[in-house]
Amino acid sequence: MTISQLLADAAARGARYLDTLSNRSVAPAGPAVDALSTFDHSLPDRSTNPAAVLRQLDEAGSPATVATAGGRYFGFVIGGSLPAALAANVLAAAWDQPAGLVIASPATAAIEAIALRWLLDALSLPASCAAGFVTGATMANFTCLAAARHALLQRAGWDVEAQGLFGAPEITVVVGDEVHVSALKALSLLGLGRDRVIRVPTDAQGRMRAELVPPLNDRTILCLQAGNVNTGAFDPIAALVTRARAARAWVHIDGAFGLWAAAAPARAALVAGVEYADSWALDAHKWLNVPYDSGVAICRDEQSLRSAMAVRAAYLVQGVEREPSEYTPELSRRARGVEVWAALLSLGRSGLADLIERNCRMAARFAAGLRDAGYEILNDVVLNQVLVSFGDDEATRRVVAGVQKDGTCWCGGTVWHGRAAMRISVSSWATTDDDVELSIAAMLRVASQIKAAR
Ligand SMILES: *Cc1c(COP(=O)(O)O)cnc(C)c1O
């Protein structure tokens, strides 16, 4: 097989996979998962031809995947892949560019810089912000908080990159009680400690209670959240960002999916004031619907981000252009900016706004359909997240398991303020109104079967 035939075969298999996705169970069938054992043999001594490698991957791998790329996957917060982004991913894989260095990859460096400019524009963030293209919001939180750590300690006369944290002036980190675990992980990786934080109590929707935020100063990092992973709720950003700026505290926004609300005019009020923060963590693999993995660490002060991330070595040529590796923890990495660029170009400003708005309206439709059937919606559905209870905790847990087994759609379970809930996250361009109706019908069918059986 020539490389051309091989790639055509891969494309055909990929297309067939996507074409048949809506006809199969969203969760993979048990026997398909069991058949993953075909992969489980020792490293062969002899080579296998590429066509056979691909065939095995497709025949044994594809059926065992979860249909997250389809229109009826509502677990966690997992977007699909826009056609343009997926196709760009395939071409960029053929390029195999190390995206960290301009001299090794001028094309991806240029495209990434444009993607960043468009992102800032779409989200109404200051055009002068700097950013790194990282694996996801966890690393975006890490990267932004490293910039914050640099800035605050530099002000105090301490070079944290050189000196480390032993003996450094203290930094106070303030988070909401509903802080995402990945922000705490980022703090732990940075030596700031996941428990060495002030946790501000939150309200019924998981929003930080602004009146309970302690006094802030120029040695404080205030971590706010745009988009609670359960409810979709937003911390009171406008009120707090003004206070924090007056105190010269650093405001970091974990906006993994919620920050995308800024791109949809009808939802933008949710993130009012967000442009006054100092740093923002964003996921592109969630609501921009690019393939995994893709996050963006955005920072108002370019110098703080570069000071925290850049490395110098004689063989790393220093040009005048933006060196991608100076903004990320990684040196070598894949060219994530290419897919971000492709997604934004294919959607345009209106397409992006429509994607966000459409998913939010679908979430509202889920809530209405389930509420009309007598089930309780536990959150204010302001974005794309819905929490539903099907009665007592046991009933809800059974419905979640039943929905997953039924296979029409997939939703995960959670516990919200002590109550079991099913969590619906609508985050994909591929979800149609029919998908929503089919899924509501499946949920109601499963719920009444479980009710009848008790
Ligand atoms: C998903 C999410 C994260 C973590 O993102 P990854 O891309 O999985 O690293 C962080 N914060 C929030 C609010 C999220 O929703």
Descriptive account of the structure:
By secondary structure, this protein is of the alpha/beta class. The protein is 41% helix and 12% strand. It contains 13 helices and eleven strands. The strands form two sheets. The chain has a seven-stranded mixed beta sheet with strand order 1-7-6-5-4-2-3, with helices on both faces. The longest helix is centred in the last third of the chain and has 37 residues, at 336-372. It is globular. Pyridoxal-5'-phosphate binds next to α6.
Provide the spatial order of strands within the biggest beta sheet.
Answer: 1-7-6-5-4-2-3
Task: Give the distinct bound molecules.
Answer: pyridoxal-5'-phosphate
* Alpha carbon gyration radius: 23 Å
Q: What is the 3D form?
A: globular
- Unreliable spans are none
Q: Give the SSE string.
A: HHHHHEHHEHEEHEEEHHEEHEEH
Query: What's the number of extended β-strand segments?
Result: 11
Classify the beta-strand content into a percent band. 5-15%
Number of helices: 13
Distance between the termini: 58 Å
Helix vs. strand class: alpha/beta
| Residue-averaged pLDDT | 97
The share of residues in helices is 40-55%
- Biggest sheet character: 7 strands, mixed
